[in-house]
UniProtKB/TrEMBL annotation:
Similarity-based family: Belongs to the UPF0301 (AlgH) family.
Species assigned in the record: Sphingomonas morindae
Protein known as: UPF0301 protein LHA26_15510
Alphabetized InterPro entries for the sequence: AlgH-like
Gene3D superfamilies per the UniProt record, alphabetical: VC0467-like
Length: 186
């Protein structure tokens, strides 16, 4: 059976036993998924010792009214590249609408807008991204590495970080305590 394709605007939840410690209990906001591959932003773990203010200082941006929020580990690819996943009430020239659920911006204009108090009402900033080549994510889903969950903006922006993985499964009617870390063979 082929895995469903083009989950843009959904959340990917790492299944137990995914086999890559970087993705243990990972929650990924899937932003792009097409025939060329996929790109998502990790929203399940904060980067140690990095906050919005320290990031803005490194970029020469006065933090202004921006809260000193933690920065997320967006993924292992290009860990020095920044992304902001945000509500649809703000958009810059390079912002991408993600399936009508949220926006993704990777340019400094969103950070400046947040600092000036005219940015999106809800947002999270991340360094790096999770990326998959052509067909790679589909294959990982077929092998039960990922669970596709509803891309609920409340889960994305409002749920406590340490509860997002569990809440994603629970919202789908799955008790994550019952998930096996390995699959059998028939």
């Amino acid at each position: 059976m082929d895995a469903p394709r083009f989950f843009t605007g959904q959340l990917l939840l790492a299944m137990p036993g995914i086999g890559d410690p970087r993705f243990d209990h990972a929650v990924i906001a899937l932003c792009v998924h097409d025939e060329n591959g996929a790109l998502g932003i990790g929203i399940g773990r904060h980067a140690d010792g990095v906050t919005l203010h320290t990031l803005m200082a490194q970029l020469g941006i006065d933090p202004g009214v921006a809260p000193d929020s933690p920065i997320f580990v967006g993924g292992p690819v290009e860990p020095n590249r920044g992304f902001v996943v945000h509500s649809r009430d703000w958009g810059g020239e390079s912002s991408v609408d993600v399936a009508g659920r949220w926006m993704l911006t990777s340019t400094l204009d969103v950070l400046r807008a947040i600092a000036e108090g005219r940015g999106p009402s809800r947002w999270l900033a991340a360094l790096g991204y999770a990326g998959w080549g052509e067909g790679q994510l589909d294959d990982e889903i077929r092998r039960n590495g990922w669970f596709n969950a509803e891309g609920d903006p409340a889960l994305l922006f409002d749920a406590p970080v340490e509860q997002r993985w569990r809440r994603g499964f629970t919202a789908a009617g799955i008790d994550p305590r019952l998930l096996a870390s390995s699959a059998g063979t028939a």
